Amino acid sequence: MGIRLVARCVHGLESVVAAEILSIGLGSIVELGHREIHCDTAQPETTVQRLRTADDAFVLVATTPDIGRTKGEVAALTELVTELDAPALREARRRCGGPAEFGAGIAVSASFLGRRNFNRYDVEDTVGAALSERLGLQYHSRRNGARPPDHCSGWRVVLDGRRARLMLRIAVQPLHRRAYKLQSVPGSLHPPVASAMVQLADLRAGDWVLDPCCGAGTLLVEAMHAQPDARYSGFDIDPAAVCAIRANAANTLTTGSADAANVPLPQGSIDRIVCNPPWGGQVPARGRLTHGSTPLWAELRRLIATDGTAVVLIPDTRELAIAIRAGFHPTHLQQIRNSGKHSFIVRLTPNRERNR
Ligand SMILES: C[S@@+](CC[C@H](N)C(=O)[O-])C[C@H]1O[C@@H](n2cnc3c(N)ncnc32)[C@H](O)[C@@H]1O
After folding, report:
1. 8 has a pLDDT exceeding 80
2. 286-295: which pairs have CB atoms within 8 A and are 24 or more residues apart?
């Protein structure tokens, strides 16, 4: 029998995750919602662990109507646990490549859409206590800022205004955690966002791929995973970032310290650029980028091959005007919302008029 899976993702990437689900043959999409994609699996269900644009993947456990806005209604969420068939659920998770047991404890995280007179901890503690009673396992609340132990099974409750849903995480760790990320830097990109950018870049075997502000190398490592037969170069002005990318990419690319406005590579040599430049949030722009992004766009335009493609994360659409002035033509724009912040993924090709 098929299993109903729920993939959760950054807002704005729902259609990208749906496309990845279809491309890896995981199953048929039955619902596309806010940060959620529901699919009925085909076999083998273990392909779910290959998803790279999703934050996490779950087995759907139960659905009930959403509760109202008031705290008094939260107790009704215990209904999500009433019909729980523990052996069937364990088997579904095992078939998806997850552990066969529920672990030594229970961790719940909750989210909801719309204004409510209760908070996430009210939901988590109510459902966690019901699960604890039902499964005979200890529940670890997050209410006082404590982090549940690693060996817990991860449960998720989502209230979307119409329905309340209970899900069980398949893997022990969320899918967005990558084993390669041994070192990080401030502003390091969320791997599923990097993976979505890489998909848009449409990497071909033999391409030369550059990230001129590579940080810990998330974009390049995701790119290497998608297209192992390309050539990769990453530069960063900060020597600490160069150390981080060397640790994460295990010397499978050429890397060095350089200013993104003065990259030591020949004109027109780069087939694909993937980049998450420093926009002055968590990471200040340094060197020649200190006074604005015009020198960056000019350098990207110098480096890109005539049939090249650049995929860049930008903070707002004003950046597009600067890219266009530098000689790029936008071919795709996608808004995402990650950690409460809006940004845009833009795909650009060099404006051919400028090549004449
Ligand atoms: C947002 S972070 C990139 C994070 C990276 N994508 C990752 O996932 O780790 C921006 C990076 O730009 C670097 N940077 C700042 N000014 C630079 C410049 N002028 N040239 C090259 N890199 C620069 C910072 O050191 C930082 O590592």
Report:
1. yes
2. 286/237, 286/238, 286/259, 287/237, 287/259, 287/260, 287/261, 288/259, 288/260, 288/261, 288/262, 289/259, 289/260, 289/261, 292/322, 293/319, 293/322, 294/322, 294/325, 294/326, 295/261
Overall residue count recorded for the chain in this entry: 356
Distance between CA atoms of 152 and 133, rounded to whole angstroms? 15
Top mutation candidate among 210, 236, 263, 338 for ligand 1, by most atoms within 8 Å of CB? 236
All domains of the chain, ordered by start, with CATH?
A: 4-169 (3.30.2130.30), 191-355 (3.40.50.150)
Q: Specify the pairing of strand 138-139 against strand 105-112.
A: parallel
Is 197's C-beta closer than 6 angstroms to any atom of ligand 1? no
Q: Does the pLDDT of residue 352 top 90, yes or no?
A: no
From 123, 131, 141, select the one nearest 67 (Cα to Cα): 123
Residue type, 92: A
pLDDT reported for residue 340: 82
Confidence of residue 356 (pLDDT cuts 50, 70, 90): very low
> Backbone phi, then psi, for 65, in 5-degree steps?
-65, 145
Terminal-residue alpha carbon distance, the chain: 60
Is the CB of 285 within 6 Å of ligand 1?
A: yes
| Inter-residue long-range contacts of 234-240, CB under 8 Å, 24+ positions, other chains counted | 234/210, 235/210, 235/211, 235/260, 235/263, 235/264, 237/213, 237/286, 237/287, 238/185, 238/286, 240/185
